[in-house]
């Protein structure tokens, strides 16, 4: 708690204690029931001034004071908790996520089936006992379309059959529940509405599980389709067949439309074949000549001499000057 909160708490305690002292003084001023009404004013003043004992027992007054002080200690913390709860909402950990208890024997059997499952004979007996209603064919697991079944590998066929068996079990469970619900609806005037509503809610959840398995089966098989067929498959509703009864017709229609669109598509400009003969205005492409590195001499190949390093004009002047001096001196010596 902050210093400001402690200060407020201490002030609140002091106010309570001050009020309790006033209350005690007021209780002490009342005359006792045992006092004589005929006593003189002097004697009553002396009694009240001398004794001034409270009417009630002192233990009761002290208990009340302690209770109010304890209440004062708790009140600021409660106000703080209420303020935080207003800002943050209710504490999620305090929410009760468990519902009311069911019958003990029923809970025991449900937990056993959820843990170990039904044995094969019991499952087969229940599956044979409950038949799919004639007016609700969709409770039977949807079969694969023939066009799709021809595309699947053996591994994917086994996976799909396993999920199809799960759907059949869920469908038989919905059938049994629907039978009980039909009986209750025929006597709905005498049956509690909460019982009927509970069965309806259970049926909604089971049918949603059935549809979720169908959707999972569909999306597992989309990898076998091309892009155009995938668009059709994702929009198809499930009926007695997984991709719908009109899936094959829609695929054929899409294929014919695609072929017609391909025929109507504008072709690109035709390219004329190049003639073997060249016109008179044909210009030969300029190719960069490669530098010759060899030359022939008497039928043999020798590396070609490269040009000597070109001297600068300054070097040429020096060479010419030295040559003229040498010539002049040579002529002088001859003469």
Shape: flat
The proportion of strand residues reads under 5%
Oligomer: single chain
**String of helices and strands:** HHHHHHHHHHEEH
Care to count the β-strands?
Answer: 2
Strand order in space, largest sheet: 1-2
What composes the largest sheet? Answer: 2 strands, antiparallel
Distance between the termini: 130 Å
Count of helical segments?
11
Biased composition (Polar residues): 77-97, 272-285
Region (Disordered): 1-59, 73-98, 262-335
Biased composition (Low complexity): 32-51
Biased composition (Basic and acidic residues): 292-303
List keywords for this structure.
single chain, 335 residues, mainly alpha, 61% helix, 2% strand, disordered C terminus
Structure report:
The structure is a single chain. Among the domains are: 3-33 and 41-90, no CATH class; 114-260. The chain is built from eleven helices and two strands; from the N terminus they run ααααααααααββα. It has helices spanning 3-29, 41-50, 58-88, 104-116, 120-129, 146-149, 154-186, 193-220, 227-235, 247-264, 313-334, and strands at 294-297, 300-303. The chain has a two-stranded antiparallel ribbon. Helix 1 packs antiparallel against helix 3, helix 7 packs antiparallel against helix 8 (193-220) and helix 9 packs antiparallel against helix 10 (247-264). The longest helix is centred in the middle third of the chain and has 33 residues, at 154-186. The radius of gyration is 55 Å and the shape is flat. Mean pLDDT is 76; it is low at 33-58 and 325-335. Residues 1-59, 73-98, 262-335 are annotated as: Disordered. Residues 32-51 have a biased composition (Low complexity). Residues 77-97, 272-285 have a biased composition (Polar residues). Residues 292-303 have a biased composition (Basic and acidic residues).
